Amino acid sequence: MLLNKSRAYEIMDKYKLDALLAVNPRNIYYLTDFSGFNNRTQRNFYEYALFPRKENAPAAYVTTAVELPRLSDFPTWVPNIQTYTHPVGINNRDYDTSTEDTEAGIPINWPIRKHRNLPDREKQWLELKRKYGENVSASPLLALKKAFKDALLDKATIGTDDPRVINWLNEAGLESIKPFEATNIFREIRMVKSPDEIKLLTKAAQINEQGMQAAIDSVKEGVDWQDIELNFFNKVSSLGGQGVYITAGPGGLPHQSVVSGKPIMLDSLSTYKLYHGDLGRTVIVGDPSKEVLKRNKAMIAGWEKAVEIIKPGLTGSKLTSEVLKVMDKKGFPGFIIVTPHSIGLEHTDHPLPIGNEMPGSKGDFIFLENMVVNVDMPYHEYAWGSMHLEDTLVITANGCRAITSEKTKIVIK
């Protein structure tokens, strides 16, 4: 299970929430373990996930009945699956609204070839349809309304990442439910990982690092950035991941192609089952200068200091100041960025200022046990080059452990 239930209950109690309603596809996946067509295509308002605070109230997943067969391969722990259908023909919704049930949908029945044996998988699909695809609603919102009633949430405060949906439910007859903006509440829950999430993030980190190695292997004098990028994406894809992003600095390579003698930062990001891997390395073609080597050693010393002091309770500002202090002593004054960030379903998987909230308004970053974090240490100097060092750590009870290789030395080609 992706969801860290105990963490969710703790944070829901903190904000006095009766339930969580996920509209954002990543939060729906988090609450259900399921990511189908509407989720992968980011089609908001065509699926929902409802997670009540009362443990005896049924959690719910709302989806189109068409997608039910996929649950045989990707089951959800959620007990209440509510489905809807759209009319196949326009006349299917041509009725007298004063005499007919406007909230009922029309089940979709694919034909079954007579006198043929059904494969076991198709038998499973038909069983899922029988269980969840007969009593369908006419729209996603009406299916969600059923889920609210099943969970006895007619009068409740609902934390949601899109309060508009609560307004629509008010208009649909659930007049006594109230919205509570929860975009960052979901992040606050998600930043402490469940055991299953840590396994996925470990796999994501390994895939991303192999993609990074493919990118490094392709760095040669005269090579265009597109070739390096393609090698990264192809490798990640071959391992079952999805490439998201790789960069060589603020605007990519400073020259049209790779040149010798200038250090190049590589920062790669990819996903495995929607969980992110993130890594930073430095590569150079040709012999590095003494300055480059000295700066790399200073970055290594800074990283080692970070690993030494990171543990639950440490603040991000304390980490930054301690690492920069070490790097300055080791010969890299003027280094700017040492930034920790939680990683997970988002690259930055902890509360962030949104809307009219100002930077810093969320308070200091605090390391917690079972967080998975990256420490970002990028550097770019115009007319000189760029460097990077970034690995991924799981925060343990008394410290941290790496799930990437921590190959911190500059790669010389």
Q: What can you see in these coordinates?
A:
32% of the residues lie in helices and 20% in strands. The chain is built from eleven helices and 15 strands. It is α/β, with parallel strands linked by helices and 413 residues long. The chain has two domains: 5-190, Creatinase/prolidase N-terminal domain (Creatine Amidinohydrolase, Chain A, domain 1), CATH 3.40.350; 195-412, Creatinase/methionine aminopeptidase superfamily (Creatine Amidinohydrolase, Alpha-Beta Complex), CATH 3.90.230. It has helices spanning 5-14, 25-32, 37-40, 120-132, 140-150, 164-171, 183-190, 195-217, 225-238, 290-309, 316-329, and strands at 19-22, 48-52, 60-64, 80-84, 155-160, 176-181, 242-247, 264-272, 275-284, 339-342, 372-381, 385-389, 392-395, 400-402, 411-412.
